[in-house]
Amino acid sequence: NRRVTVRDLALAKERGEKWPMLTAYDAMTASVFDEAGIPVILVGDSMGNCHLGYETTVPVTMDEMTMLTAAVVRGTSRGLIVADLPFGSYQEGEVQALRSATRLVKEAGAQAVKIEGGERSADRIGLLARSGIPVMAHVGLTPQSVHAMGYRVQGRGEEAAAQLMRDAKAAQDAGAFALVLEMVPAPVAAEVTRALQIPTVGIGAGSECDAQVLVWTDMAGLTPGKLPRFVKQYAALRSVLGDAARAFAEDVTTGTFPAAEHSYE
Ligand code: KIV
Ligand code: NA
Fold first, then answer.
1. Which CATH superfamily does the domain covering 6-234 fall into?
2. Is a pLDDT exceeding 80 seen at residue 155?
3. Catalytic residue among 14, 92, 107, 182
């Protein structure tokens, strides 16, 4: 009963086996996904939007990442836990990146970290990989750069597609064990997936990636408002939880709860 390893994921690519990844930000939710057999759980900096009430991922701190990663690790025993390096925790250079990644692995117990950028982050991917920290890279739409790039499809057009391929290869050559492709045209993601030896993990990147990831609150229907096209909702948790809260409130105000069976003699 050991955890999934990056070697298992490399073998899955060789065998042509696809795998799912979900985000989680707390021990209990993570334990549900772990029991459901989700092999890789990402403690994404999407916790900024989905868990901490920020508008973007930009404000997420190393303290927040470390605390919630430790919770996810405690709630799981089988999945590989990947923790995002938040904005500002690796931009200063290799030494800062190594210090941040080390904290997520050593203090929080993550087995791998994720970093945004291909070519632009290759030096840091290289140092982490050489230091024994498995690194997942993330290219295409990189939400930490929202103020520079917005939230829109990346890699459209010949030039942008060629840059995406260079980013993907730079990440692989630097030693990344996997690569997230976010919001890139399906044919471009397919070409990158074929060109790489390491697995690609798509989100809004079509069906030919080696793996797929979704933000858990999106796929479970907990996130309010209009969701991106790439999300599929597998449950309607927002209405289920809302109904439960309204039923509880009704029972309390009418004196129906607690009943005798919920009370002590
Ligand atoms: O933070 C996150 O949830 C992510 C995934 C969308 C890949 O980076
Ligand atoms: Na992220």
1. Phosphoenolpyruvate-binding domains (3.20.20.60)
2. yes
3. 182
Return all residues near 95 (Cβ < 8 A) that are at least 6 apart: none
Q: Give residue limits of the domains in the chain.
A: 6-234, 236-265
Contact 164, 119 (CB under 8 A): no
Mean model confidence pLDDT for the chain: 98
> Of the candidates 83, 49, 52, which has an alpha carbon nearest to the alpha carbon of residue 151?
49
> The tokens of 23 are what?
């985000």
Q: For ligand 1, atom 5, which residue shows the shortest CA distance?
A: 44
The pLDDT of residue 1 is above 80: no
Q: How far is the CA of 79 from the centre of ligand 1 (A)?
A: 17
Residue 183 and residue 205 in contact, taking contact as beta carbons nearer than 8 Å: yes
Are 144 and 182 in contact by the 8 Å Cβ rule? The answer is no
35 in active site: no
Cα 251 to ligand 1 centroid, rounded to whole Å: 39
Cβ of 44 below 6 Å from ligand 1: yes
Q: Sign of torsion, CA 101 68 78 219?
A: negative
The answer to whether the complex's ipTM is over 0.95 is yes
pTM over 0.90, yes/no: yes
Q: Is any ligand 1 atom within 6 A of the Cβ of residue 21?
A: no
